[in-house]
Amino acid sequence: MTRRSIAIIAGGVALVAALAYLRDPPWLANVTSGMREWDYSDPRMVFRWTAGRASLFIPSDAKAVMIPLRSGIPGPLTGEVPVEIRVDGRFLATITLTDPMEWVRQELPLGNRVSNRRFRRIDLHVPRVVGEGNGVMTGPPTVW
Amino acid sequence: MYERGVRHFVAATAVIAVFAYLWIFTRLGYPPIHSDGYSYYVYLPSWGIYHDVTMEALARDWYGGKYPGFTGLLRWPTTGLWVDLHPIGTAILMAPFFVVGDLLSLWSNLPRDGFSLYYGHAAGAAGIAYLIAGLVVLRKILRRHFSDGVVLATLVGITWGTNLFHYGVFDGTFSHVFAFFLVCSWILIVELWWERPDWRLSLALGTVAAMLVLVRHTNALYLAVLPLYGVTRWNDLGARVVSMWERRRWLGAAALVGAIGILPQLVLYRMSTSSWLVNPYSALDIGFSFGSPRIVAVLFSTQKGLWFWSPLLVFTVIGAIVAKGWARGIVWPAVVTFGIQTYLAASWWDWQFGASFGHRAFTDGLGLAAVLLAAFFQWVAERVTARRIVTGVATALVALSVAQMVQYWTGKIPIANTTWQEYRDAFLRF
Lengths: 144, 430
Known about the structure:
heterodimer, B: 1% strand
């Protein structure tokens, strides 16, 4: 067997191993997308702004999730800000934020969907942004 | 010893780049796609995920229909359609990495939103990959004409004694390292084409020329390397015109490929603005002030002076004077393109080019500067005393550049408008 063949086989094995690992990595719980840094300026509530889209991960054995939401600034026209929530790409609920100053805490049942992954992905979609692309304020999620 | 150094230099640089990247984006917390990098990159999610060349769908999904100011996208005043301040070339070169990031996102159940974890690092990896590819091409050029010791010193100097490494790793989603790769490729192809033209090389000429323009429109100035290559005297120009006329078939083929290559950008401009040729910055009422260029500031100032922040490049000036042999034929193209680049940068409304380490207007052309640096090192190598002095000075200047790069990364050096007092206060303080 030539050195080239050995290198190709070793590369192939490394690639397969990397892909197997990346399918369900344990650090995914700490991964978010479309989320700003945590803001500690309010002593009553730590929060972070989303962009128009944002995603986070929760354990796959969770039966329900609650993500505190607040619009912070009124939406256009009626002032309401609807937040669409999806789980693993499937529609879960729309929560409408009517009072910009009020934190809305709604428990959302997740059903008993079987998953062989450690985590499920929660996507938030906000149809408006303010400032430099901020959607709504979110607090730390709670799962049951 | 030098031969081994040259052989392993690129691989060693790749390893160092990966470690530096991991440090920057895990410890220092910068996102890979930031600042101008956003507007270079945003074509990919818009085209690849939202299947939309107008950028509207991404704006709706991420920003409620209106891109925020930091994104570098603006609504064209007459059509109301989105126009990106930066052209499509960088995104085209990044595209293979974007595809990998997209497939990995699908595989790991990460959001296929164009900006989640793998997309960002795929774009960052593209910067490193084009840095390495550019160095491979540059090494090939230099090895054809210089000794191993000179090649190694030049590669080290260009990579670490300038802001090249920074633009491959820290600001790897900006256009500069992609343009560096293209300029190096351009020099090599031009050299081979003048040696012995054929269809393959002519098509490569057209392709690289188109990509140069697509990555940064003002980089069209590097096309001047083709007619000026090998010209060392005024009297050569007439003969050069004749030889280009003799190769008009090859040139015509290259021009045709180049024209086809830039067509997508022209069509995009036409769709968005109703004009084929557009300066997107004109919608912001900013542009060039050709009557009052800040040439001294661009070259010498503490803010962004090229030779202040990359003093090793002063050696290229001497290299242009002492160059001999093949390198002599690169002096004219280098001086002409450097002169035009300096005048353009100095005339730009923001002559500092915003946040940057050193002056990034010149990063694209470091492949040409490398030839002059090599010419200088070759000249020095023939003189024992000068060799000792220059080795010490060059090593110190490379170390200084690396130290200041790290200071820039860690916020010890301001991102712009650095004063002499600020520079002195921060000097070698970590």
